[in-house]
Design goal:
- The chain is built from 11 helices and 6 strands.
- The chain has 301 residues and is mostly helical.
- It folds into 2 domains: 152 residues, no CATH class; 132 residues.
- Strands 1-2 form a two-stranded antiparallel ribbon. A two-stranded antiparallel ribbon has the order 3-4. A two-stranded antiparallel ribbon has the order 5-6.
- Strand 1 and strand 2 form a beta hairpin.
Amino acid sequence: MNLYTERHGLRKPIERTSKISKEVYTLLLNACQKYYKNLTHIFKLQQHCSFVNQPYIEFNRSQFENRMVIKIPVIFRDDYGRIVAPQDNDVYDQYALIDLIEYVAENIKDISEGWNNDRYRNYWDIRCLNTTEVFDHYQNEINEIFQESGLLFTLTSEKIIERITENTPLSPAIETQVQQIAEYGTRELMKDAIALYKTPNPAARQDSVEKIWDALERLKTNYTNLDKRGSATKVVNDMSNGKDEFITIFDAEFRALTDIGNSFRIRHHETNKIDITDNRHYDYFFNRCLSLIALAIQYLK
């Protein structure tokens, strides 16, 4: 539901960001903790009620915390080793929190819980089910926090967190086209490039650009009955429908991208290559290369 100031345009637009603040970190961690009991099928604490001489199950928080020391070693913890939200000037790794969100998403299952007896309430029992309908509720809560805080992330139905990419030609339609590329090597390079581009951690930008440039170079050799120059010429001619004006444009773009790949630290890492220090420039290079490839693959035979 939009609030009054949102409905009437009285609120400033939410600043879009990839930085998880301490306040948002707390909200996201609370959302994870709310569903810890849905991990009981992994972290069971067997208890026994001597009064009624019956066993019951609780969520084993201690076992969970110990497991997370191995699974997510750098997530923020208090002095007692418990996963908590950072305070004041605490330094934290936001991507470790993303790991936790994904871990809960991957392992979440439905539970049925309640008192053993409505009258005497001797113990509270958790019964583990083999269904995952609860994931939809968890996904909605996480994504609502992402959306309301302006975070450029989303928890997908595949139970992974991807960054929301703005001002990009990348679309579901293009991803579908990539899946249909007949040549295995080009297809796999493109899939890897897109996955890295959508990864929340900015450190993956360089790898995504390197992969898509590798895909561009392999695309030029699509026609294995021709040498590289002949194959590249056929790719350009097919894209251009044989029209000279478009041949000139696309040939120049292939050459320009090849020069960029050779001049900047993209595919080669010698000391004389130009470093890319601004992630927005990586996004520009990726999207420019993607635009050409996305068009070219529609004409491949």
